Amino acid sequence: MMTEPPKPNEVKEARQRAHLSQKDASKLIYTSVNTWNRWETGKYEMPLCEWHLFILLTNEVNKVNKTPSVNPVNELKSIVDDWTEANPYD
Fold first, then answer.
1. 58 with 14: CB under 8 angstroms?
2. How many C-beta neighbours within 10 Å does residue 38 have?
3. DSSP 8-state secondary structure symbol assigned to residue 4
4. How confident is the model at residue 68 (pLDDT cuts 50, 70, 90)?
5. What CA–CA distance (Å, rounded) separates 81 from 87?
6. Which CATH number is 8-86's, of 3.40.50.2300, 2.60.40.10, 1.10.260.40, 1.10.3720.10?
7. Cα–Cα separations (whole angstroms), residue 78 to 19, 49, 55, 75, 82
8. For position 67, what pLDDT does the model report?
9. What angle, 0 to 180 degrees and rounded to 10, lies between the N-to-C axes of helices 33-41 and 8-17?
10. What is the pTM for the complete model shown?
11. CA distance linking residue 14 with residue 24, whole number of Å
């Protein structure tokens, strides 16, 4: 699993491999097309939670991580667990 934000070219290449426009990619993860464009142009770093969600939803896990047979359900659970530990509800 990636622990650093993706580079702008990684964001763009993953979107293109998924055959999505910036508009469709942004809708997929509930963000604006302007924000998506800023991630691809490097004006903002794409937050890891959005990056992980996008690669999971587009079945890009194995292509991005270059690891064989990653289970998307386990990967998402790990992301949620990590976030919950870092952001307790108390």
1. yes
2. 17
3. S
4. very low
5. 10
6. 1.10.260.40
7. 27, 11, 14, 5, 6
8. 46
9. 120
10. 0.68
11. 13
CA atoms within 13 A on the CB side of 22: 13
Per-residue buried b or exposed e for 10-29, using 16+ beta carbons within 10 Å of the residue's own CB: bbbbbbeebebebeebbebb
Q: Tell me which amino acid residue 47 is.
A: P
**Residue 69 pLDDT greater than 70, yes or no:** no
Cβ neighbours, 10 Å, residue 77? 11
Query: Alpha-carbon distance 78 to 1, whole Å?
Result: 9
Name every residue whose Cβ is closer than 8 Å to that of residue 33 and which is 6 or more positions away in sequence: 22, 23, 26
